[in-house]
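User: Please run a holo structure prediction.
Assistant: Happy to. Please share the sequence and the ligand.
User: Here you go; the ligand is adenosine-5'-triphosphate.
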Amino acid sequence: MGSSNSRQKDLEPEEPMHHANGVNAQPTQRMSGMIYVALYDYQSRTDGDLAFHSHELLEIIDQSHSDWWRARSKISHMEGYIPSNYVAPVKSIEAEPWYFGKIPRIDAEKSLLQPENENGSFLIRQSESSYNDYSLSIRVNDEVRHYRVRQQHAVDGTGNVFFISRRRPFSTLEMLIEHYTSNGDGLVISLTKPCRKSRAPLTATLSYDTTDNWEIDRTSLKFERVLGQGQFGQVHQGLWNGRVPVAIKSLKPGTMDPQDFLAEAQLMKKIQHDKLIRLFAVCTTEEPIYIVTELMKNGSLLDYLRSPKGRQLKIDKLTDYSIQIATGMSYLESRNYIHRDLAARNVLVGQKGTIVKIADFGLARVIKEEEYEARAGAKFPLKWTAPEALSYGKFTIKSDVWSFGILLSEIVTYGQIPYPGMSNNEVMLKIEMNYRMPMPEKCPVNWYLIMLQTWDTDPMKRPTFDALRSMFEDLLFTDGQHYKESAEVL
Ligand code: ATP
């Protein structure tokens, strides 16, 4: 424990300065008429958008919308809308293959440790803690080393300089990378290739047209196969406009009032985070209501943990899942939003089994009252619900923290039902009398100590999600094999 403190000590904050963008030390200006370069391939989805290939140059015509810009290809001269997160200003730092932006240290490690990266693979990211600096992360066998890249005003007043070692300053980050590629010069290893970037990111919405117009035509959806069955209806894998893979949830008629659902959906639309399933669109003009979301290829975390693949996951991976879930919940916490049904069945797993995201946030609130009460039957998630929520209906972010503790027990037992062998009624009565779930078999003690904190009778004494995220990060850094402090002095 305590490594977050030791990490703090490592930092030497400089005077805050204007944030220059490295390569040509020019701040990135997002102005129309500028030339951008495509970072990924993009296939056209509607008549109004523009397809392009990675590295293609695009002239930006209109940036008035934040997620979709109007652009003209410098190659085909065609015009159309493009997703703004697929491009970067030409010659800017964001256009460099080695620049990963503001990603956490832990994500840099995960990316670099992917098998496709070789020894010496590297990336530059914006420092999490020091606004003006960058970090260089390098793969060294099965570990990742991090070096602070400082940015300061040049002594001769000619702009900013970048350096790892004060004795060797560079006027651009590109020059710094070139130098340490040709010569390790004190680094533990010379740089080889930029870390592979993962697949293209999610677009913020399905298309430019659906950004302000959520309600999509149900005929634009093609149902491909059933992914699963929830209490309120089926979930299908499908395609929007014949091209974009999506998940489509159909709600059994009568489950929700379409007006209530739409109001909630408006709110959910604003809640966008990497660790929360993206809500893309809805069909509410007739029943069944459809909810169209991001597709997660490996389905629910509960099923995944119980599968042969899931059962082989080591504790480091399980800790990483807990960090990802706590990160998503900590975002909800910061937006004063409550999940109300946090459980492994409501967490979904991505294609490679490395990414998990929280689903179904907000839906519990719009389920019709009688349906909700009907849930007090066998299917009500009583074992996940905090006592004050059960007794007085007091759902808060702190009742979500309680549910997170139960979710941790599901993770560490590879999907066992919580309180094994006990009925819902028995659990409810015993919890009131201060009974808590005993430590599951093979659960690390430090996990259990965290779980107990989430089950404090006094909701205010339960940790915040932000604190829970740090606790699990500390476990990973203390127990993990591949974390090294960047204390090297060059
Ligand atoms: P509840 O009805 O209590 O919320 P649930 O979460 O299992 O239970 P659904 O959200 O309807 O019910 O999901 C049913 C199943 O469909 C999930 O267990 C999962 O396997 C699959 N599923 C749901 N959403 C997606 C998605 N976005 N991508 C891939 N699979 C999904």
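The pocket of adenosine-5'-triphosphate is lined by residues 227-232, 235, 247, 249, 277, 293-296, 299-300, 303, 345-346, 348, 359-360 (CB under 6 Å).
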